[in-house]
Design brief:
60 residues
Amino acid sequence: METENWVQKQLDHLVEASKDYRQKALFQETKKLFQEQHQRMEQMEGELDGRMWSPKEWSN
């Protein structure tokens, strides 16, 4: 969580500091991609936890 916040702040700073439209667009899209990847990681961790604790999986 701490790393996510740091990256988000850095990307926000880069968007604000950039004067070039293309750079701003790149940083904004990078931020969206980072958020999506973080969300996917959380979902996969939850799925892994669920599978590990599933009684169906204990017999294997």
